[in-house]
Structures are given as structure tokens and as C-alpha cells.
Amino acid sequence: MATVDLNLVRVFVTLYAARSVTLAAERLHVTQPSVSYALARLRELFGDRLFVRSRDGMEPTFTAIQLYPALRDSLAQIDSVLEGNREFEPRHSRRRFRLALTDLGEMALLPRILAHLHAQAPEIELEVVPLEIDKAEDWLATGKVNAVICSRPIAAASIERRVVLSDERYVCLLNRDHSTIGDSLSLEQFIQARHAVVAASTGHGLAEDVLREQGLQRKVSLKVSHFSSLPRILQKSDLLAILPEQIASTFAREAPLKVLDLPFEVPPFEVALHWQAHTARSPAQHWFCESIVAAIAGT
Fold first, then answer.
1. Structural domains in the chain plus CATH codes
2. Cα 64–Cα 65–Cα 67 angle in degrees, nearest 5
3. Do the beta carbons of residue 271 and residue 165 sit within 8 Å?
4. How many whole angstroms separate alpha carbon 276 and alpha carbon 296?
5. pLDDT band at residue 84, thresholds of 50, 70 and 90?
6. If DSSP states are collapsed to H, E and C, what string results for 38-94?
7. Which of 50, 42, 47, 48 is nearest to 3 (CA)?
8. Nearest Cα residue to 275 out of 127, 103, 97, 121
9. Which DSSP state fits 263?
10. CA-based nearest residue to 131, from 156, 113, 150, 146
11. Nearest-5° Cα angle at 219, 218 to 220
12. How far is the C-alpha of 24 from the C-alpha of 85, rounded, in Å?
């Protein structure tokens, strides 16, 4: 590994995550031929094809899968050391930061975060990446995002976590003039009603886990990718949906909807900011995370 160019390692890690020469080139801000040339050098170095074309993109070989964790972590450590020696002046910075959020996070938290960041650093760019909870750990490790805000803990020793919202709970949201449900919701009504559910990739699956543990089955009539589509759907149907109380209350204030307690016990949950531990040595990363915490806390 002593003879491996650091740029080759960066191409390898980026290509592994992107599974596409085109996307890897875009993320690295280089041309596609440059990525192809780097891949050829990597193949020669390791004596393996490393990536093979398939219908799903550039699939890693067994050797590439074995190499990836070590190369990814080594690259992240090097970047962290280099970044730690750079000065960061928020007022004059034009740096781009990437934050992974669900659409709920965008609606409930992003306005506060953006206002706070731009008050201190008016020239920075914030890119919001739609959260895919199963990929969050890898996104942090590879530097695809600087931080992740989610309700489901990312269980990895290399990830730091700071709670930004506590004691949030799940409730049921439905049409204010629902044909069969009034001001309270029984378990029988819940089971018999038709439901709209949101993709598990958002990380909001605690209520689903409880239902599964209790052996309760409901009638799922609609699955959507985003919570933001629910208000219009619910006000024009008799569907029920489970949402965090804060955003459900917001939806109910803006549309003819009502919020009811769930007829079964779901533990309260926390929303937390997650970031790669070793990146805290970076002044820019430290400022970014602390600013998000302050923004959500309202300080």
C-alpha cells in the first residue's frame, strides 16, 4: 500500500459508493476518462478487476469488497488530519456542507438550520441529501455527507451522536371528517381502517416494530416514499397514517386533519445529529455540527 497514490484510493472509495464511473467523476470533479484511467491503474496494482459492469452499474468483486472498509477508513483518517490543520472562517467561507435529512426533517428543522448557518456564514452552501437510513453509516464514513439527522440510532463505534429533540412520540393523523372515527381511536378501529405507510428508509419504523412485536396486522392500502405527500392524501380519503406528533400537529393546523393518540403503547423517541467521530478535529466540521445543534435548540 505504500506505493498506492492517495488519489487512486479516493477514486476507488468513490467508485465503490457510486457504482458508476459517471457519478464518481461528478463527485470527484474530474472527467470520466480520468476515473477510467485510475481504475485501470488500480486493477494493475491489485491484480484484480475490482469492478465489473452489470445491469445495476459497476459491481465490486470479492477483492474490492475486502479492500473497501480499510481503504475507506484510511482515506477518512487522512482527510481528517489534513482538514484539522486548516483554518476555518465562517464569515468568509464558501464551503459546501452536506446534511442527510428525511423530508420531515426538511419541513420541521431545515428552515431553522439554514437561517442559523447563513447568519454566521452567508456564503456557504448547504446540500440536503434525502436520507436512506441503511446507507447513513457508509455515507458518513466515506464523507458523502458531513452529518445525518435521524430518529433511529446509527450503531457504530466510529459515529458520534448528539440528541437534538427528545421525548417525541408517534400519533395517528387522519381526515377531520373521517367516516367512522371520531375524537378517539380504538385498537379495533385502527386494525379495521385502511392505512398509508411511509418507506422504512426514512428511519421512522418504531411504531411498525411495536405492531410486529404485538402480532398486530393492519390493512395497508398505500405506500409512499415521503411524509410530505400525506396531508393531501389523507384529507381526500379515509386512510390513517402514523407520524411524529410535532409534524402531525403542523399538518393538522394547515389542513382539515386531526391528530389522535395511538391505541397501543409506542415508546417516545429521540432525534439525533450523527457525524463521523474523527472529523470533529476539523474546525469546519466542528462549527457545522455545533451550529446545527444550536439552531434546533433555538440558541
1. 6-84 (1.10.10.10), 90-165+270-297 (3.40.190.10), 170-267 (3.40.190.10)
2. 60
3. yes
4. 20
5. low
6. HHHHHHHHHCCCCEEEECCEEEECHHHHHHHHHHHHHHHHHHHHHHHCCCCCHHHCC
7. 42
8. 97
9. S
10. 150
11. 110
12. 27
Higher pLDDT pick, 255 / 279 = 255
The C-alpha angle with vertex 27 and arms to 24 and 28, in degrees rounded to 5, equals 85
Would you place residue 83 in the very low, low, confident or very high pLDDT band (cuts 50, 70, 90)?
A: low
pTM: 0.72
For 126-149, the pLDDT digits (tens) are 999 999 988 898 888 878 899 999
Give CA–CA dist 64/50, Å, rounded: 5
CA 218 to chain centre: 27
- Residue 287 is placed in which grid cell? 462549527
Q: What are phi and psi of 48, to 5 degrees?
A: -150, 155
Distance CA 125, CA 114 (A): 10
Query: Measured between alpha carbons, how far is 143 from 43 in angstroms, rounded to an integer?
Result: 24
User: Average of pLDDT values for 50-58?
Assistant: 90
Give the pLDDT band of residue 2 (cuts 50, 70, 90).
Answer: very low
Nearest one of 209, 218, 267 to 239, comparing CA atoms: 218
Q: How many CB atoms lie within 10 A of CB 221?
A: 14
The cell numbers describing 127, all together, are 446540500
pLDDT given for residue 277 in this prediction: 83
**Cα angle: 292, vertex 298, 299; to 5 degrees:** 85
Strand order of the sheet with strand 219-224? Answer: 219-224, 194-198, 240-244, 170-175, 257-260
Set of cell numbers at residue 31: 472527467
